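Journal club prep, notes for RB
We'll compare a predicted complex against what the paper describes. Inputs for the glycinamide ribonucleotide case:
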Amino acid sequence: RKRVAILISGSGSNMVKLVESMADSGHPGEAVLVLANKAEAGGLTKAEALGVPVAVVAHKGKTREEFEAEVSAVLEAAEVDIVCLAGFMRVLSAAFVREWQGRILNIHPSLLPLFKGLDTHQRALDAGMAVHGATVHQVTADLDAGPILGQAVMPVHEDDTAETLAARLLPLEHRLYPEVLARFAAGSRGRVALFA
Ligand code: GAR
């Protein structure tokens, strides 16, 4: 089984769904580590409760190079094969991405290539989108621009706000990411498409 690490910065709800999906021994992946860049990340206690080893590599007070070297060392020590970014809010350098080339996935709360970066829900509203969604993609040196592995789509309602969009999208993310990871870990190609 592929050894999977999940990197988080916050509440870690996607991380929980990924870990739960890998609890099945027939799954091609195994959750071996949850790593956060801040000790306060709410997802850490959830990971501990699920029995997954956790690590904190704080980014504060370090250069990007120092931070990433520490993250890499922790991932290497855990013999990680696949890195899933799940609400991990640090941009990774080209050097880090090269080191983990082809082995990093990310979930982004928009229908890429639209709305790379932050504030995706408000930007989808401002653009007058009739649909919104989430994308799981491979991470490359260009932010939110690597090959798309799967997308989930839902309608935008007249009275939606950034908050209601985010809340309605999250359960779709929770279906999308485990499905994409299972296919990726098994080495299958092709993209996942989910509809609300
Ligand atoms: C998710 O909506 C994810 O798509 C988004 O952060 C949230 C994390 O929630 N990711 C990004 O914005 C990446 N730039 P979670 O911690 O509950 O999984």
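Talking point for the session: The helical segments are 13-22, 43-49, 64-77, 94-99, 120-126, 162-185.
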